[in-house]
Design a protein that fits this description.
- The protein has 232 residues and is an alpha+beta fold.
- It is built from six helices and five strands.
- The chain has a five-stranded antiparallel sheet, with helices on one face.
- Strand 1 and strand 2 form a beta hairpin.
- Helix 1 packs across helix 2.
Length: 232
């Protein structure tokens, strides 16, 4: 009788430690990739821009200098010329004539099917993470959209009080609901202030969350999450 009611044997000590160690290793690996990939991609893109501009300007400059100084080469010339081109484009965007030239070039690029998709996506991401774009949004909220019990991340742009229009528009928030992965496109919604849930994250964190499709989530599991939510 005693043999049939044997106590279950305890699991080996290492049985639980192995899954925990595997999970910890996976978390560390993913965290390292999240840090490394953006840095590597940034360096790669900057290098490609430098090599492209250096390949255009350096042979011309070397050939011009070679008339007087054969074999002479100016190191770092591509970097200097790249910086000058960036500053020139920035300066052109601040005046009427320059803006027309840039818009004309953009319209020409957008007529090419493949180039249009690449250019629009790249420009949208850069504009989304720029300082001016972040300043246009005041804070991050959650709203029930497109239907009840389904939430969407939204950015508050302004508030308004239109009591003469409708009872529900006496105190509303104008919010922008972005699309993924291009947060420069989306929907403008007018939401009653009482129905907007404040998010305890910055606008930059919200934009990164949208661009990554929810992969880069800010930490909102702490006990002070609700207390730290910015007032609407």
């Amino acid at each position: 009788m005693t043999d049939s009611l044997e106590q279950p044997q305890a699991a080996p000590e290492g049985a639980h430690s192995k899954p925990r160690a595997r999970t910890r290793f996976k978390r560390v690996l993913v965290t390292g990739l999240v840090i490394l990939v953006p840095v590597t991609l940034t360096v790669y893109i900057l290098k490609q821009i430098f090599d492209f501009m250096d390949g255009i300007f350096t042979p011309v400059i070397d050939k011009a200098i070679g008339v007087y100084l054969p074999g002479f080469h100016i190191p770092g010339l591509g970097l200097v010329l790249t910086l000058m081109v960036v500053l020139l484009l920035g300066w052109l965007s601040t005046n009427v004539v320059g803006r027309r030239l840039i818009h004309g070039a953009e319209a020409l690029i957008c007529r090419i099917p493949v180039a249009k998709s690449i250019y629009s996506a790249t420009k949208g991401v850069l504009e989304a993470v720029s300082f001016d774009q972040s300043e246009a949004f005041q804070r991050v909220v959650l709203i029930e959209y497109p239907k009840d019990n389904i939430f969407a991340l939204a950015f508050v742009t302004k508030s308004a009080r239109w009591p003469n229009l409708h009872a529900k528009t006496s105190d509303i928030l104008l919010v922008f609901v972005p699309t993924t992965p291009n947060p420069t496109s989306g929907f403008l919604l007018l939401v009653p202030r009482s129905e907007a849930i404040p998010m305890p994250i910055s606008v930059e964190q919200g934009i990164r969350m949208v661009i990554s499709g929810g992969i880069l989530l800010p930490d909102m599991t702490g006990p002070k999450t609700l207390q730290s939510s910015p007032p609407l």
